[in-house]
């Protein structure tokens, strides 16, 4: 069972419970939309699919957090190309300041995990502590290929992962995935 | 007598193709070029200029860390990690590959290996910088002559 979970990039936990039942079980499954389904929903043909995916990301308020100038400039441009409205900052502290600000309209945070002052895991942990619920959505940016990365991310409330170097289709499909997931959950 | 536009365009195509063929650049650089449009006509040159500045700082800092006794391998590794990330995001394939080797030597605390990697990085960086500057100067000449920049 556990092996299946891992193959599906999911996980399984036993959660102790004190309300009469000895314990409950948490299943975490990660489903990916198959391209064939996406095409079936939209009109056939590349052009319409492209418009579809972009309309979902258009005007999305994104906060980009990366301490490297070059990476930040490239990722910012990628997001703008997808129609997102991007604010970018160079550190975890700046990110917390923007998010902590009352009335922040940020919907998604793109967070580099590897940063010198406070890393992405710590930033995500702090955000989830003072902002209730699953908003804003947090997507990790990482060059790491570690196997347990997904687990570590989910345990601190990170909703998605994008591998670096960031590519246009990679960023678009992960953003679409978490947005759809968010709509189902909330 | 100045070269005509068609000749410059051919030169640019050949130079760019050679940079890909010799492994200086990979697909990520093509992606960077696609991100440039009428709203951001200088995007590539701006990002690359930023990359040049950061490269020079990182190379200087890595040299300084290696000169320390004992060498600060942890800090060098952090610089190599950052350099690997920025070179990957602009498609500087050869610089990125040397960074990966560099990190392995840092982890092994191999001073000699690190020194070799640093001088290799300095060399790769200066080759890349010259080649990219030539590429941009060809583009500027074409624009000045009223021509359009050929896409790959």
Walk me through what this model shows.
With 186 residues, chain A is an alpha/beta fold. Chain A folds into two domains: 30 residues, no CATH class; 130 residues, Rossmann fold, CATH 3.40.50. Helices cover 45% and strands 20% of the residues of chain A. In chain A, the strands form two sheets. In chain A, strands 4-3-5-6-7 form a five-stranded parallel sheet, with helices on both faces. Chain A has a two-stranded antiparallel sheet with strand order 1-2. In chain A, β3, α4 and β4 form a beta-alpha-beta unit. In chain A, α5 packs parallel to α6. Chain A is globular and about 45 Å long. In chain A, 26% of the residues are buried. About 9% of the residues of chain A have low confidence. Chain B has six helices and no strands. The model of chain B has no long low-confidence stretch (mean pLDDT 95). Chain B is elongated. The longest helix of chain B is centred in the C-terminal third of the chain and has 34 residues. Chain B is an all-alpha fold. In chain B, α3 packs antiparallel against α6. Chain B has one domain: HPT domain (Four Helix Bundle (Hemerythrin (Met), subunit A), Up-down Bundle), CATH 1.20.120. Chains A and B meet through α4 of A and α2, α3 and α4 of B.
Short structural summary:
The complex is a heterodimer of chains A (186) and B (152). With 186 residues, chain A is of the alpha/beta class.
CATH second-level architecture of the largest domain in chain A: 3-Layer(aba) Sandwich
Q: Describe the biggest sheet of chain A?
A: 5 strands, parallel
Which shape of chain A, going by the Cα principal axes? globular
Helical segment count of chain A: 8
Number of domain modules of chain B = 1
Topology readout:
The complex is a heterodimer of chains A (186) and B (152).
Chain A (H helix, E strand, L loop, with lengths): L1 H6 L3 E6 L6 E6 L6 H7 L4 H12 L3 E5 L3 H13 L3 E5 L2 H9 L7 E5 L7 H11 L6 E6 L6 H7 L4 E4 L4 H18 L1
Parallel strand pairs in A: 3-4, 3-5, 5-6, 6-7
Antiparallel strand pairs in A: 1-2
Chain B lengths: L4 H17 L5 H8 L8 H25 L5 H18 L2 H15 L3 H34 L8
Helix pairs in contact in B: 1-6, 3-4, 3-6, 4-5, 5-6
